[in-house]
Structure formats: structure tokens, C-alpha cells
Design brief:
heterodimer, A: about 230 residues, alpha+beta, five-stranded antiparallel β-sheet, about 30% strand, globular, B: about 260 residues, 10 strands, about 40% helix, disordered C terminus, nucleus (chain B), Ntn_hydrolases_N (chain B), proteasome (chain B)
Chain lengths: ~230, ~260
């Protein structure tokens, strides 16, 4: 609509997307992976629920966490779960982590022109038993990395992981001497998401953390701040 | 016999009101090797005898998982069974995706019965030449169903299908009253004993016996050969002990079997 000065004013158009907030992260080690997400679901400045899961265990060796719009996360996870079962029925064995990663990428790109508003991280053990993390954008760009964070707290978490896992910008430690142990990684992930919960209003309530290694997946839960 | 006049097409009734093509299809089921199922209040079990056509080939699989809470044992044309299995897997997965819960066993079996019946009344189609024993655990109860090429399906406490299944059925008829209260181990043992009745001259080994279980806090699982062997060992043990006592009983069983063959 035009104002009396002749400039066009944009009426706010309806958008099919909303952001329900929340943070997710994952770290890969030599023979394990740690993956975590908070459970707070927000809308604007309100909390819709303190427990809405963003985590899905796909196989014993592979899990996914997603941040963004809860409706799309829920649907994507449903589709992924069904696809994993179809694969297992067809091939007689569970999907490898690489296969899951590729499948997620394809499922996302399939919706290239009406994307899932999800920012996903897939983590697990690859076929050689090495820990791996895959990060995505909303339309399925796939990259294998050593660690990743997504969601409202990602800008608070990612630099911490840069410093502690990739040892960037550190003068006090040599890369060759450093090895990330499972206990260190778990503590790091817990601390990182707890710190995000301190400053990011959309991160809080509970965290679902999962440790994946050759023996399978061990799931755990702990509390964050409720404010 | 007179029936050859009325058996050339599925759409022809005999004067006695029988559809011979369907009965011939059920014969295909009876030609397959034995599959039997039994259930208690908490578990349902299928036990099968897996044939191998010769020493070089593998044993024909007869047990398949449909979903976490349901599985089937087949007897008859394996290729037809694959089609029905795919159908069942699709139905259960679709239900899980849409409603977020396990599809009740009875509902799948009903859909399967409808599907089977369609093939008995359609131009150019033939009945599926396979009988299924469907076991499942849902709604807090165990289920055992038999489906047949005719499209009939029934629920059973215990049932056996395939060749020489009558011997197994006799054993099950004798013992089924005790089944509801049994634990998993004893239930499987009964199943294996029943299979032994219909195994004839074939020795039961961990390679040609298939066992699968489902139940409360037990997802559908096909037992590994080593686990199967533990049950076979238990049977052999008790057999050795009561061999002398049951000599007379065995003779009676052999007589019954010879009678069966004559009726064919």
C-alpha cells in the first residue's frame, strides 16, 4: 500500500515458518561421538513447553538432533524413522551412518522449494568405527566435520568448540600432544550447552545427551536453568 | 475323479458347492514343510522346519519379521509369501507413521484376508499359494492367526500347517490347555517337541529349525542358531531319559502316519 508521500509500505506477509528456538551440538572423537540438544520449545518471548524432544536415535550407531521449527523437526524425524525401517527390511541390516547422512541430505533437498525449517546435525560411528559428525543447512548441504552446533545458541557454542576441540587460537597447547577422550568430550558438551543456556533465552530446561560408540548408544538427560 | 470337470477355472463351482482351484491352492500350502505356532498369555512362538533342496543349497527361510511386534511363518510358495510380506510391512509401517502406534495384528490379518479373497474372484488372477501363521503382541495380548489361500483367517491357541502337520497338531491338541500359563522357555520347548512329531526321518539341527518369539517386553526376534541348539539339546536330553517308556506311543504315531498317506 502507498503512503501519502508515495512510498510503498510493506504489509507483513504471512509466513509458514516460525522459529521455536533451542540449541544442538555434536562432537566426534576417535571411536565415539557425543550428541546433545536442549528441550525447550519457545515462541517469541514465551515458552511453549519445557520438554519437546529434538533428538532421534536412528540406529544403534547413529542419531540426529535438529533445531528450528518444531513441526518440521517432528515430521522430518518421522519420515527418517520410517525410511530407516524400510532400509533395514530391504537390506537385512541397519543403515550405516554414512547412509543416514546421505539420506537426510536427500530428504532435505527434496523440499528445495519449500524447505524443512530444520538445522540438523547427524552424529555417530562410521563403518570403520571412527566417530563422525555431519552438519547441514536447511536444504541439505552436507559436510562431514569433527564438531558442529546449530540453533539459537550456536553462535555461543561454536566458538567454544573451535577453541576446545579444534584447538584454534591457542598458544598453550600443541595439537600433536592432544587427544580428545570420551570423558573430556562429554564434559565439554555438557559445559558448552550449559553456558549457552546462561546467555541464550531460548536454550534451557533439559538437555538430552547421547554417547555413541562401538557398543551402542547410551542416552542421558540433565537439567538446565528454567529461567 | 469327477472333480476334474469343475476345476479348470477359479470361477467354476462344483455341484457340491466347492471351488476346486482354491482347494488346490491349499494343497500347495500342505506341500510346504511344517510351520507351527503356539501362544501363552505373555508370548507367541513360531517353529519351522527349513528344508534345503540339496546339500549344496541353503535352507529355505520360513520366518520373517513384519514389524517390531509382529512376524510370520510361511508354508507354501515362498515367492507368493514375499508379496504378502511386503504388503504387511507396508501396512504396519504406514500405520506407525500416521498414527504413531503398532498396527493391531488382527487388523493386518483382516486386510490380508480381503486381499487373498480378491484373487479368488478376479479374472486372470490366481489365489496366493501360501499359508501364513501370523504371531503378534499388541493391546496387551498375544495373537496367533492362520491365513490361507481361500481368504479365510482364524485365530488359534496353537496351529500347525504344511506337510505332516497333523502329527504336530495332535501333539498341540494334547497339550494346549497348559500353554496360557507357561513361560517363554517351556513354550518354545513345546513348539520344538511338536515339530519333532512332524519331522519324520529328518533330524532336527540348528540349521534346519527356525524359531521366532514375540511377546510382553519381547520384540519379535528370530532366534540365532546357537540359541536354537540349546532347545534341541534339551529335547534330546529328555528324549534319552524317556525313550524306553515311550516305545509303545511311538508305534501308535507311526500307524497314524501310514493311515494319512493312504487317504491321499
Amino acid at each position: 500500500m502507498e503512503t501519502y508521500l508515495g512510498e510503498k509500505q510493506q504489509a507483513s506477509q504471512w509466513s509458514p515458518y516460525i522459529n521455536n528456538g533451542g540449541s544442538c551440538l555434536a562432537v566426534a572423537g576417535e571411536d565415539f561421538a557425543v550428541i546433545a540438544s536442549d528441550t525447550r520449545m519457545s515462541l517469541g518471548y514465551s515458552i511453549k513447553t519445557r520438554y519437546s524432544t529434538k533428538y532421534l536415535k536412528i540406529t544403534e550407531k547413529c542419531s540426529i538432533v535438529s533445531s528450528g521449527m518444531q513441526a518440521d523437526i517432528f515430521t522430518l524425524h518421522k519420515v527418517l524413522k520410517s525410511r530407516a525401517q524400510i532400509y533395514e527390511q530391504k537390506h537385512g541390516k541397519p543403515m550405516s551412518t554414512d547412509a543416514v547422512a546421505k539420506l537426510v541430505s536427500r530428504l532435505l533437498y527434496y523440499r528445495r522449494f519449500f524447505p524443512y525449517y530444520t538445522f540438523n546435525i547427524v552424529a555417530g560411528i562410521d563403518d570403520e568405527g571412527v566417530g563422525c559428525v555431519f552438519s547441514y543447512d536447511a536444504i541439505g548441504t552436507l559436510e562431514r566435520v569433527k564438531y558442529s552446533a546449530s540453533g539459537s545458541g550456536s553462535s555461543l557454542i561454536e566458538p567454544v568448540l573451535d577453541n576446545q576441540v579444534a584447538l584454534k587460537n591457542r598458544n598453550d597447547i600443541k595439537k600433536e600432544d592432544y587427544k580428545l577422550t570420551k570423558e573430556n568430550a562429554i564434559d565439554l558438551v555438557k559445559d558448552a550447552i550449559t553456558s549457552a543456556g546462561e546467555r541464550d533465552i531460548y536454550t534451557g530446561d533439559f538437555v538430552e545427551i547421547s554417547i555413541i560408540d562401538i557398543n551402542g548408544t547410551h542416552e542421558d538427560k540433565f537439567e538446565l536453568r528454567f529461567d | 475323479m469327477f472333480r476334474t470337470q469343475y476345476d479348470s477355472d477359479i470361477s467354476i463351482y462344483s455341484p457340491e458347492g466347492r471351488l476346486y482351484q482354491i482347494e488346490y491352492a491349499m494343497q500347495a500350502v500342505a506341500q510346504g514343510s511344517t510351520a507351527l505356532g503356539l501362544k501363552s498369555k505373555t508370548h507367541a512362538v513360531v517353529v519351522t522346519l527349513m528344508r534345503s533342496s540339496d546339500e549344496l543349497s541353503s535352507h529355505q527361510r520360513k520366518i520373517f519379521k513384519v514389524d517390531g511386534h509382529m512376524g510370520i511363518a510361511i508354508s507354501g510358495l515362498t515367492a507368493d509369501a514375499r508379496v504378502l510380506l511386503k504388503f504387511m510391512r507396508n501396512e504396519t509401517l504406514h500405520h506407525k507413521f500416521v498414527y504413531g502406534s503398532d498396527l493391531p495384528t488382527g487388523e493386518v490379518v483382516s486386510s490380508l484376508a480381503m486381499k487373498s479373497q480378491r484373487n479368488t474372484q478376479r479374472w486372470g488372477r490366481r489365489p496366493y499359494g501360501v499359508g501364513l501363521l501370523v504371531i503378534g503382541y499388541d493391546g496387551g495380548k498375544t495373537h496367533l492367526y492362520q491365513t490361507s489361500p481361500s481368504g479365510n483367517c482364524f485365530s488359534y491357541y496353537a496351529q500347525a500347517i504344511g506337510s505332516r502337520s497333523q502329527s504336530a497338531r495332535t501333539y498341540l491338541e494334547k497339550n494346549f490347555k497348559a500353554f496360557p500359563e507357561l513361560g517363554l522357555e517351556e513354550l518354545v520347548l513345546h513348539g520344538v517337541k511338536a515339530l519333532k512329531e512332524s519331522s519324520g526321518k529328518e533330524t532336527l539341527t540348528k540349521l534346519n529349525v527356525g524359531i521366532a518369539v514375540v511377546g510382553k517386553e519381547q520384540k519379535f526376534e528370530i532366534l540365532k542358531p546357537n540359541k536354537v541348539q540349546t532347545y534341541l539339546d534339551q529335547i534330546l536330553q529328555t528324549e534319552g531319559e524317556i525313550e524306553i517308556e515311550n516305545e509303545n506311543e511311538n508305534e501308535k504315531d507311526e500307524e497314524a502316519e501310514t493311515l494319512e498317506l493312504k487317504l491321499d
